Amino acid sequence: MVEYLNSCRVRRLTLILAIILAAVIGSMASSSAAYDIWYLSLEKSVLNPPSYVFGIVWPILYILMMVSSYLTYKKVFSIFIAQLFFNAVWSWLFFRFQMPFVALLDIYLLIAINIYILNLMYKENKVAFFLFIPYVMWISFASYLNLFIVINN
Q1: Pair 100, 135: CB distance under 8 Å
Q2: Rounded to the nearest 5 degrees, what angle is found at the Cα of 119, between the Cα atoms of 3 and 84?
Q3: Residue among 41, 36, 26 nearest 142 (CA)
């Protein structure tokens, strides 16, 4: 039984389902951002994209995350699940609980974890490494937007 739970197929399927779950949980917190009075009243960076951009970018990033984690599951399984937790929590901290400073700490931790994951992917599979870079770049950009809000509000 233990061998079955640790099998390649189960771990890969778990990663895919965990990514989908993180996407759903995160989007539950941020789906009303376009008309949320608190969010709309915040002073935002001129680089802040329109709300619809997030709906385009995130599904692409989640697909890239699925492929890259699928290719490197042996090396990244546990830490990847952990980063998904912090990914989903960020939306709740920022949008639902309106705690941009705590969300900023979360995203800094998320970036650090994902730089570590990038390092693991680089050693394991170069394709996975390159597919994962856009996600790390996007959350790094998101951390700038988050920091701007913390400083200016």
Answers
A1: no
A2: 60
A3: 26
CA angle 149/59/143 to nearest 5° reads 20
- Decide: 61 and 134 in contact? Cβ < 8 Å: yes
Q: What is the pLDDT of residues 75-90, one digit of tens each?
A: 999 999 999 999 999 9
Give the pLDDT band of residue 34 (cuts 50, 70, 90): confident
Tokens of 143: 């951390």
Mean pLDDT, residues 108-118: 98
Tell me the two tokens of residue 40: 């709309």
Residue range 47-70: mean pLDDT, rounded? 95
Cβ pair 141, 91 in contact under 8 A = no
Q: How far apart are CA 63 and CA 30, in angstroms?
A: 19
Q: Which H, E and C letters describe the chain, residue by residue?
A: CHHHHCCHHHHHHHHHHHHHHHHHHHHHHHCCHHHCHHHHHCCCCCCCCCHHHHHHHHHHHHHHHHHHHHHCHHHHHHHHHHHHHHHHHHHHHHHHCCCHHHHHHHHHHHHHHHHHHHHHHHHHCHHHHHHHHHHHHHHHHHHHHHHHHHHHC
